[in-house]
């Protein structure tokens, strides 16, 4: 009944019949049930102080706690092994804080939390703080946290503690008589602040929708940075603009595969997923879907069913500097365009699965592929490889549709040429050996030619303008088309301004099928030309 009156106080509509029933018949239920303890309405105070509560009654384990508008309550006890209250409700502009500088502070809630206000755990002031919000209901339904419009859930731990310890946390622990792990479900839809830094989360799932992290809307944030997620803890975001998920650790030690990803983001443009480490039998380490401009950088994913996936329209996707180990499937991308750079997939059955996409893999490495594994499974679209340790025979091209056109797979390679005794201001020119190609026309098989020489070398792959040539292609029937032959010319200095450069030497060149440079600053020449 009191929940109805609080709804009226918030300005929400309540059905008249519902109100009448609550007034005349619900009263007996309230009498029989545990008490509802409400704050004083004069600013709140410490949880254990009687003056903080109406009637001077400090909440007990069976009570429902209501923190009223403009009241802030500071939890100041260690209730480890106890229940602090049954349910917790926070009105708009109400707040729940936790005492700092007092060592271990644990609040245990035995049922649902519903908040229109702020919950803040701040352990940044003292390394001796050990602050925890614990959900201890006997069913998953009793461990839910519902954050409504205007709410905030803020966790700030102290950084750089010994042994990577986190001194603030939100957990859903397994109780003594509990057979299965119960996941606490945090639910929010719009106009909510999530700012989690250096905190720990155990068996907690965040599901957040419609949150704008661009800064253009007040009281909306979603930044998850440097946290530790254990057990079945995971993150699911939908329609959250520019969310940041960075430097977190996800560790699931269970032997049973989970059916969800550790990090799942969809309909959320400009997502940043950076520097995370994910270990355990998640269905997927990271998945992005139905969104543009995703940035997935410097993540390590181990022992998931799949490392990174994305699809259903993912234009301008960038995956960079990721390491994926011991996942059955390394990366699968569908329905988008973008790049995968400086990424390593180790011990996979399928390292890369390409579906209906237009992508470039650059400096992509596959290590210890399964004995009967597939390096690249190509369904359709267009795939470009630049300096990847993938041989043509490691690519499996599915039968193409009758209307398919173009070249499915194109392999490009960096070329570094050394010229001994080259004169100052010499240049290297590479052209396809094709009489049909106009002498003064652009060569579609070559990039960045002519190239300068520095200490006798053309620019290394780490430079902005390295020489690049087409090495081979795979056609619509899955057949390998070997690379064209090239002419490499050493051009001397022009005798005068505007004059043509003389050809000092010309040699033929054909790139190897399996040429690969593990390091971009490797000065080992692809081809060496002697002028004398």
Give a structural overview.
The chain is mostly beta strands and 532 residues long. 5% of the residues lie in helices and 43% in strands. Among the domains are: 1-33, no CATH class; 39-212 and 224-242; 417-530, no CATH class. The chain is built from three helices and 50 strands. The strands form five sheets. The protein has an 18-stranded mixed sheet that branches. The chain is elongated.
Question: Care to give the gist of this entry?
Answer:
By secondary structure, this protein is mostly beta strands. It contains 3 helices and 50 strands.
Spell out the key features of this protein.
single chain; 532 residues; 43% strand
Strands, helices and their partners?
Elements: H1 2-9, H2 16-24, H3 26-32, E1 36-38, E2 44-46, E3 64-67, E4 72-75, E5 88-90, E6 95-98, E7 104-109, E8 113-115, E9 118-122, E10 130-135, E11 145-147, E12 152-156, E13 168-171, E14 184-189, E15 193-197, E16 200-202, E17 204-209, E18 221-225, E19 228-230, E20 234-238, E21 244-246, E22 249-252, E23 261-266, E24 272-274, E25 277-280, E26 284-289, E27 295-297, E28 300-302, E29 306-311, E30 314-320, E31 323-325, E32 329-334, E33 336-341, E34 344-346, E35 350-355, E36 357-362, E37 365-367, E38 374-378, E39 381-386, E40 395-397, E41 409-415, E42 417-420, E43 427-432, E44 446-447, E45 451-452, E46 467-474, E47 480-482, E48 486-491, E49 503-509, E50 527-530
Parallel strand pairs: 1-3, 2-4, 3-5, 4-6, 5-8, 6-9, 7-10, 8-11, 9-12, 10-13, 11-14, 12-15, 13-16, 14-17, 15-18, 16-19, 17-20, 18-21, 19-22, 20-23, 21-24, 22-25, 23-26, 24-27, 25-28, 26-29, 27-30, 28-31, 29-32, 30-33, 31-34, 32-35, 33-36, 34-37, 35-38, 36-39, 38-40, 39-41, 42-50
Antiparallel strand pairs: 41-46, 43-45, 43-48, 44-46, 46-47, 48-49
């Amino acid at each position: 009944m009191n929940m109805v009156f609080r709804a009226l106080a918030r300005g929400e509509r309540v059905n008249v019949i519902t109100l009448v029933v609550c007034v005349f018949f619900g009263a007996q239920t309230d009498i029989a049930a545990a008490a509802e303890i409400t704050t004083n309405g004069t600013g709140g105070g410490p949880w254990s102080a009687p003056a903080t509560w109406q009637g001077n009654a400090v909440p007990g384990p069976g009570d429902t706690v209501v923190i009223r508008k403009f009241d802030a309550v500071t939890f100041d006890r260690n209730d480890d092994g106890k229940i602090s209250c049954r349910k917790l409700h926070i009105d708009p502009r109400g707040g729940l804080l936790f005492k700092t500088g007092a060592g271990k502070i644990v609040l245990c809630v035995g049922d649902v939390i519903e908040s229109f206000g702020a919950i803040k755990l701040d352990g940044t002031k003292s390394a001796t703080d050990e602050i925890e919000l614990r959900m201890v209901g006997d069913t998953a339904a009793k461990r839910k946290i519902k954050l409504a419009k205007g709410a905030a859930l803020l966790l700030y731990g102290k950084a750089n503690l010994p042994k990577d310890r986190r001194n603030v946390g939100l957990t859903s622990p397994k109780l003594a008589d509990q057979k299965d792990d119960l996941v606490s479900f945090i639910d929010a839809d719009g106009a909510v602040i999530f700012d989690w830094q250096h905190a720990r989360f155990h068996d907690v799932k965040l599901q957040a929708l419609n949150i704008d992290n661009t800064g253009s809307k007040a009281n909306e944030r979603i930044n998850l940075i440097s946290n530790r997620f254990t057990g079945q803890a995971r993150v699911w975001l939908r329609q959250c603009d520019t969310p940041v998920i960075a430097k977190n650790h996800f560790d699931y030690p269970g032997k049973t595969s989970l059916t969800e990803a550790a990090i799942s983001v969809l309909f959320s443009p400009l997502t940043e997923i950076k520097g995370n480490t994910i270990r355990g039998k998640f269905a997927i380490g990271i998945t992005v879907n139905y969104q543009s401009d995703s940035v997935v950088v410097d993540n390590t994913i181990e022992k998931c069913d799949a490392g990174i996936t994305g699809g259903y329209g993912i234009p301008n996707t960038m995956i960079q500097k990721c390491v994926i180990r011991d996942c059955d499937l390394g990366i699968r991308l569908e329905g988008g365009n973008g790049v995968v750079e400086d990424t390593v997939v180790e011990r996979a059955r399928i390292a890369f699965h390409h579906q209906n996409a237009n992508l470039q893999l650059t400096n992509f490495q596959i290590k210890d592929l399964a004995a009967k594994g597939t390096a690249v499974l190509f369904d359709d679209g267009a795939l470009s490889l630049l300096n990847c340790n993938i041989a043509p025979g490691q690519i499996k091209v599915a039968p193409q549709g009758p209307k398919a056109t173009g070249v499915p797979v194109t392999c490009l390679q960096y070329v570094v040429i050394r010229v001994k005794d080259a004169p100052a201001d010499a240049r290297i020119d590479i052209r396809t050996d094709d009489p049909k190609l106009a002498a003064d026309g652009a060569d579609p098989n070559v990039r960045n030619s002519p190239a300068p020489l520095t200490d006798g070398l053309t620019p290394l792959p780490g430079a902005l303008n390295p020489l690049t040539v087409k090495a081979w292609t795979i056609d619509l029937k899955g057949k390998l088309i070997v690379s064209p032959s090239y002419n490499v010319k050493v051009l001397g200095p022009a005798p005068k301004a505007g004059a043509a450069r003389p050809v000092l030497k010309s040699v033929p060149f054909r790139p190897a099928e399996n040429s690969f440079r593990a390091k971009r600053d490797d000065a080992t020449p692809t081809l060496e030309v002697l002028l004398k």
